[in-house]
Amino acid sequence: MSYERRVLLRHSLASIIALGLTGLSRFLYSVIVSRRFGVEELGRANSLISQAFFLAIPLSFFAVALGKYASEFLGRGDKDAIRSITLPSFLLPLAGLLLIPFNVYLSLLATFRGIQLTLRSFLYGIHRGEHYAYIITLAFFGFLFGFLLPNVFAPYILFLGFVSLFSLGYLVKFNLFGKPRKDELTLLFSYSSFAFIGALSGVFLVQGPYFISEYLAGAEVAGRVAAVLSVAFLLTYLPQVVQSAIIPLFSYKYGRSGDDYVRFLAEKTTRVLVLLTALGVSLLMLLGREVLSMFFSFDVGPDFYLALMAMEVYIAYNPCIVALNSTAYVRKGTFVALLGAIASLLSWLYLIPTFGSFGVMIGLIIGYAIILLGSTHYSKKLLGVSPRIYLPLLAALALQSLVFVSKVALMVGLLLFVIYERKDIKDVLSSFKSFRGKESG
Length: 441
Hints:
This protein is an all-alpha fold. The protein has one domain (3-434). It is built from 18 helices and no strands. Helix 6 crosses helix 8 (154-173), helix 11 packs parallel to helix 13 and helix 12 (259-296) packs parallel to helix 16. The longest helix is centred in the middle third of the chain and has 38 residues, at 259-296. It comes from Thermococcus piezophilus.
């Protein structure tokens, strides 16, 4: 079995666990808090948590660069270079503790989240994604225990706090700290200055809807947004299993001058993600609204459909923008992400006060669509990725819009999509069979 195949397998299995538990935590939190404390309290709590997660991006300033260069150095066999960039990367999140005098919950959540993001990027970068899954699994028990406490923030503080403690123990046990060296630090700072803006823009489109909606329309609207997005974002964690597995390989192969492999991997991954997500979104549209409304004790409305379509676009562009950021074109990826975030923010200033939670979802689609167009342009120009990989996405979105007519119309649309994508479906199935056959052999 090739090294790349082993990494894909380990990281895929690890991501199923880690991303699944992370996504499940947000959904469970939203359901339990809304039933126990009410939808307005859910809105306020999710607003502060999202602000903390947003602040965690500057605190994890080096995280993206740490993962990229750790993977590149691993490809070159330079372990001392890996150790030299670890210490400053993990020390920076501790700056979040300076916020304790202002808001202790905001401070702790931001600090712990910054450490988690740094650890995730680092472990996937050095091709130990399965170890990250172990840590997340153990910490998840702390999250569940937190619901036994009367504090609304206890589940996340315990969850992320345990991740931080396990991170320290892991780094010490495996001797992953080293003396920082000038050459590696220069690379770390240079790349991070651009990757940080892109990461901040991307996270704003994930966390921003919670606190922006509370600011512009109140806690009740923010609670409805939290309920809808807790499921919609859960959708993104499952397809990201593939994405998380291949991100380190982009940098690893780039470090070995494997440009053609980067293009191939970006196209192949996008095709698989678009197909699986389109099918998943269609099924959720058929059943999800009624089930979700039962969980939260109020009708989530057509907002749910728009949220799913927004996530579909988000998932589709990720492999290409990650390929840009993981190679030599981080500035292009950053520019595209920033443009999308600004577009969503400006649109929200009008859409949220006017349409409430429905406006949040429209603004998300606007921002994600702009990032999709930009990443498509630059990945074609710089990496040679064909824009035709997004044709199934356009077909899926057009057919899924039939849900606003009726569920019967959507079922017809789903059938037409399966017919349209029959060749890709056969290719994906044969690829999985081939993969399993080689593994067993």
